[in-house]
Amino acid sequence: MDSNMTKITGKKYVGERSLFMARDLVIEDTIFGEGESPLKESRDIKLYNSMFKWKYPLWYSKNITVKNCSWFEMARAGVWYTENISIEDSAIEAPKNFRRCKNLSLNNVSLSDAKETLWNCEDVTLTNVTAKGTYFGMNTNNIKVDNLTLYGDYSFDGGKNIEVRNSKLLSKDAFWNCENVVVYDSFISGEYLGWNSKNLTFINCTIESLQGMCYIENLVMKDCKLLDTTLSFEYSTVDAEIKGHIDSVKNPISGSLTADSIGELIMEEDKVDVSKTKIIIRGE
Hints:
Layout: E1 6-9, E2 12-13, E3 23-28, E4 31-32, E5 43-48, E6 51-52, E7 58-59, E8 62-67, E9 70-71, E10 79-80, E11 83-92, E12 102-111, E13 122-132, E14 141-151, E15 160-165, E16 168-170, E17 179-184, E18 187-189, E19 198-203, E20 206-208, E21 217-226, E22 237-242, E23 245-250, E24 254-259, E25 261-266, E26 277-281
Parallel strand pairs: 1-3, 2-4, 3-5, 4-6, 5-8, 6-9, 7-10, 8-11, 9-11, 11-12, 12-13, 13-14, 14-15, 14-16, 15-17, 16-18, 17-19, 18-20, 19-21, 20-21, 21-22, 22-24, 23-25, 24-26
């Protein structure tokens, strides 16, 4: 422990702002009970094996390290407006966590109610994270993700500069209104994937989606599989190489689409200039 830091062990705090503006603390085996904003405006805090049981524990804080801690259901809106925070090996039950945070890292963290979580943040790293909740990651930029399992619709809406690897997303309307997204080696299941986005790339992914990948400017797909994916690519510019069969394709704007077979190809001359899209069926 840094010699300039004070250690707190085995305490229980209740009441509003119990450690308001705390500085240079190592906090172990401690419970923050009923009482809002216990560590608001804190700086240089290390938290180990501790519990948050009430609202707004870490607002406007800086330089926070958290390991083996728990946020219970009433620790809602737990971390807002905070900079430089890393959380490891922790469980977060409360919703609406992480708003307008900068330089946030989650490693081996579960979020059982991630509704409206990770909004308007910057510079985020997610590693070995499991989350369940709608509107995860809305308007958050500069995200690196490895091994995320997400259950919840409308994920990453409005985000920019997102890299996802080795993940599973069960998420309708994922990656809407996004810019500069690359997804590697992942599984995505959900209707209307990627609408209204720009520079969206999938590499070696498996996707299941009704009307997926529509209204996208510069959609790139390499070595992907499309399972039970219908009415895909409508009004998108595409550079897609699909392994196997596509159930149906409808009115891409331009580009190139390669697959082993396509069940239904809908190209309506009154809707798009069909000459601008090249359709390649392997073996033909």
